[in-house]
Amino acid sequence: MSRRPLRIGNTSGFYGDRFSALHEMLTGGPLDVLTGDYLAELTMLILGRDRLKNPDLGYAKTFLRQLEEGLGLAHERGVRIVTNAGGLHPAGLADAVRALSAKVGVPVSVAHVEGDDLTSREDGALTANAYLGGAGITACLRAGADIVVTGRVTDAALVSGPAAWWFEWAPEDHDRLAGAVVAGHVLECGTQATGGNYSFFTAHDVRRPGFPLAEISEDGSAVITKHPGTGGAVTTGTVTAQLLYETQGVRYLGPDVTARLDTVRLTDDGADRVRITGVRGEHPPATLKVGVTRLGGWRNEVVFVLTGLDIEAKAALLRSQLAETLEGVADAAWTLARTDHADADTQETASALLRLVVRDPSPDRVGRALTSTAIELALGSYPGFHVAAPPGPAQPYGVFASSYVPAAEVPHTAVLPDGTRVQIPAPPAAPPASPAFEARGSGGGAPEGVGGAAPAGSGAEPRETVRAPLGALAGARSGDKGGDANVGVWTRPGPAWDWLRATLTVDRFQALLPETRGLTVHRHELPNLHALNFTVTGILGDGVASGHRFDPQAKALGEWLRARHLDIPVHLLPPPEGTGT
């Protein structure tokens, strides 16, 4: 007998997300399960430093504070809670939840998932954690847990684990699991699925978007929606944008299943409802990704304000004055941002910013001695000398790297409410993927070379073009994966997609974004989504915590791409209001 759809919501997309979200989701409408995603690469570094100070910490303390009020609401409504807020110490957070339960007088059954912590295997690591799948969560829910706390599981596992419990799926139900993983990927970043960080934000009221939820069916299909009356919007555009976020290639590799993103189909299902169907799944890989953070050294920065005329000469003078001071520093990077305008009517808009970032293994070389030397120039450097902020001490920075370990070597363990420890076996190994398929991306196409204004081989005559920003026709969303970045670009079906597919090659992408030249860029096609996904290797250096780049998580890389101008056929412009919705 088939079971009704699972109604599962999200209440957090990162450590520091909207504090009131848990209360809003529990009171806004019916739910079966509520998830919270608190972990990211930077978060693991933060939690690692917390653990250095106090070995009893290492989890997201915000979750506990949210739960003080939410525990009673969840109990009254029969909502299970699944969260990765356990971070580096899931057992510790589980104990803290039990203590909170006793304090507020709300009886709950608590379980946790562990085994991801591999720090002892990585020399010199602050943290090293394998990305576990959802099977441990499934086991905890099957044992009657009201709250399941995990460490580093994949973000989508917070949804696929409960779905497998709800429908009693087996590990071999690849298509169904893949559908839940895709739904989980849409939910994991909270309001990014409901209009937040959305290219076409002017088409909707996104001042306070509601958090998303999914209605997952037994066959693995799902409807993405939100509670009635909440802000934002759920459209095929907002869901497409999130599907493209932080993905690499057409195969979305996970510890439970490999989801084929080129099989995903989106359709409108009513107001603020988008249906996801057709997702195909394959065997998971035989290895698990391991995220490793290390303390990389010490960094500092000074931002000098250059106002008015002779901006380039002022910058050159300052660099020459500090050249001797910087000789012993391991890494010193200067960036001049020409934010100044000619004949400006305010002083701020007449000013440019010259940023100096220094890194070194020793805090002494980049500490106050260095910044004080910079400030000592105040009366003897360029006219109008001043800085954006007072000089500060050196700060530690971290680096992120990933490695892989055989899944069978990771002790994935579900610790049930009664304390029973259940070992979760690794899924059967997958057959090797086709290198040719991965190399060309879904749908083939020409990853390299310069395209024209009409799809190759279409026989269409060139149309009149106009110089315009790519964003007049296409949406984009970008993000980070360690030191790499991805940029997903999508547009309307039909002629707009044909043009985008033919025109936005790797060569054109790198011409539009010169900072990607000299780096390896891969292009993948997702025809069902009318989208291209680009991955840029190494643009973020050692990851967000190292502060390698002005935009260290590549959050706005896609918006920069949309702002670049190229020749667009006139008949494709202007797009209808709210393109992509």
In short:
The protein has 14 helices and 26 strands. It is of the alpha+beta class.
Describe, in plain words, how this protein is organized in 3D.
This is DUF1446 domain-containing protein. InterPro entries: AtuA-like_ferredoxin_dom (IPR056362), AtuA_N (IPR010839). The chain has 581 residues and is of the alpha+beta class. The chain has an 11-stranded mixed β-sheet with strand order 11-12-8-7-1-2-3-6-4-19-20, sandwiched between helices. Strands 5, 14, 15, 16, 17 and 18 form a 6-stranded antiparallel β-sheet that branches. β11 and β12 form a beta hairpin. It is globular, with a radius of gyration of 25 Å. The two termini are 36 Å apart. The C terminus is likely disordered.
Descriptors:
single chain, 581 residues, alpha+beta, 11-stranded mixed sheet, 6-stranded antiparallel sheet, 14 helices, 26 strands, 25% helix, disordered C terminus, AtuA_N, DUF1446 domain-containing protein, AtuA-like_ferredoxin_dom
Topology diagram in text:
Elements (H helix, E strand, L loop, with lengths): L5 E5 L10 H8 L4 E4 L4 H13 L7 H17 L2 E4 L6 H15 L5 E5 L12 E4 L4 H8 L4 E3 L7 H11 L6 H14 L24 E5 L5 E5 L9 H8 L7 E2 L5 E3 L4 E4 L5 E4 L2 E3 L4 E21 L3 H12 L8 E7 L13 E10 L7 H8 L10 E2 L7 E12 L6 E3 L5 E3 L11 H6 L24 E5 L5 E7 L2 E7 L4 H9 L2 H7 L8 E6 L4 E6 L20 H7 L1 E5 L12
Parallel strand pairs: 1-2, 2-3, 3-6, 4-6
Antiparallel strand pairs: 1-7, 4-19, 5-14, 7-8, 8-12, 9-10, 10-13, 11-12, 14-16, 14-17, 14-18, 15-16, 19-20, 21-26, 22-23, 23-25, 24-25
Helix pairs in contact: 1-3, 3-4, 5-6, 6-7
